Amino acid sequence: MTDFFDDLERQLVAATPQRPARIRRARQRRAAATLSVVVALLAGGAGIAAAVGDGAGDGGDGPSGAPAGTATTAATTPPTPAPSSALPARDAYTVAVLNGTTVPGLARGVANRLQSGGFKIGNVTNAATQDHSATTVYYRTPDCVPAATQVATALRLGDAQGDFALQKAPKELRALAGDRAKVIVLVGSDQNRTAGP
Amino acid sequence: MERRTDTELLAAALSGDGDAFGAFYRRHARRIAAFHLARTRDAQDAADLTAETFAAALEALDRFDPERGEPIAWLFGIARHRLATQARRGAVEDRARRRMGLERLVLDDAALERVEAAATAELVRVELREGFDALPADQREAIALRVLLDHDYAEVAGATGSSEVVARKRVSRGLSALRARLAANGKGIR
After folding, report:
1. Strand, helix or coil at A170?
2. In chain B, what are the domain boundaries?
3. Which of A81, B16, B78, B100 is the most interior residue, by most CB within 10 Å?
4. What is the DSSP string of B4-53?
């Protein structure tokens, strides 16, 4: 029999000595998420925040709040030719979406959102395992990191998760994603938004 | 029983004493849950907000200033703020809980019922306590002797130097004041 009050107490007692480390970690995550949003906005100009309509309802005071307003302003001016840190155009590379959950159609839904945000979608299929909770964005080669950042930002991963892990795609993931995919989204159950409150 | 004051517990928690924060939590968790339950009317929301309130308190330990008031007032300030944020966002407010690395506790019906029962019992206890303290001294004394210590009215009259009729009147007036108080606040719960 679980008791809420006892369970929460155990967690709090354990968290208290780790408080400084956890605060530090949360700050780093927030800084990383803010940085990636800023980079994406500087380089990508208009499209980013406006494009993926699904994530627009948050309105929290997280790192995405202020930059989103900036993006709206930027949308009225022509996209500036990007400096060297430029993000590629969204349709300049292919994104594969793999379903890492048992929820049918979850990868398809994410792919549709990305597509309506201007991304070019490649393979959409099941991942090798279906037990992923956190959505992760993989890049094929290091030069695809800006593109992967762009995708992760569009999915608002940094916002929703507080975590922003870009990883190099392992071989079996690349095989599932197909040769053309520069960026691979492994969809976890955190994208299953309609089910949650 | 924990003998340290809330302020002492928070100071110890700030230097990493988990049991001190646990004791502070035990002292107030049910009351905070009752606060949230009375306003959200949903036991899972109340549980989430209780976790969020204490996670935020843990996170903000270094910002508690004993010069500016009691810890309980500070804690209720956090609770009110979290409740308002959740209402504004229209979604479970969980950012402090995530930052502090706490798991979300998803409760089944039985566990939710226990949260509700514990929170309600706490509310009744607080109301009775405060209501009892607010009674005139003669009624308080008569109720203590008759109801809590189970003396008969002759003994109550003897102990308080009054007649039996007066003793009865004091007990009955005091009890109906308590009943009225509970009834008035019960509206907030349901």
Report:
1. coil
2. 1-106
3. B100
4. S-HHHHHHHHHTT-HHHHHHHHHHHHHHHHHHHHHHH--HHHHHHHHHHH
Read out DSSP for B42-86?
-HHHHHHHHHHHHHHHHHTGGG--GGG--HHHHHHHHHHHHHHHH
Cα B101 from Cα A15, distance rounded (Å) = 7
A158 touches chain B (CB under 8 A): no
Nearest to B89 among A5, A22, A60 (CB): A60
**Going from the N-terminus, what domains does chain A have, and what CATH number goes with each?**
1-197 (3.30.70.2390)
**Nearest Cα residue to B137 out of B163, B165, B173:** B173
A28 inside 8 A of chain B by CB: no
Query: CA A11 to CA A13: how far, in whole Å?
Result: 6
Nearest to B89 among A12, A59, A162 (CB): A59
Cα B23 to Cα B29: distance, rounded to the nearest angstrom? 10
The more confident residue out of B175 and A166 is: B175
- In chain B, DSSP finds a helix count (H) and a strand count (E) of 9, 0
Find residue A94's DSSP bridge partners: A120, A181
User: Is A59 in CB contact (< 8 Å) with chain B?
Assistant: yes
| pLDDT of amino acid B30 | 94
Return the structure tokens found at B18. Answer: 């988990």
Mean pLDDT of all residues in B50-54: 97
Looking from the CA of A58 toward its CB, the CA atoms found within 13 Å total 24
Q: How many CB atoms lie within 10 A of CB B108?
A: 9
Look-up: residue for tokens 């089944």? B108
Q: Please, what sign has the CA dihedral across residues B53, B54, B57, B59?
A: negative
Return the bridge partners of A168, or none. Answer: A139
Cβ atoms of A147 and A183 within 8 Å: the answer is yes
Q: Which two tokens stand for residue A116?
A: 């309506």
Is the Cβ–Cβ distance between B107 and B44 less than 8 Å?
yes
The pTM of the full predicted model, rounded to 2 decimals, is 0.54
Higher-confidence position of A59 and A49: A49
Domain covering B1-106 in this structure, CATH number: 1.10.1740.10
Task: Check CB contact under 8 Å for B59 and A19.
Answer: yes
CA of A27 to nearest chain B CA: how many angstroms apart? 9
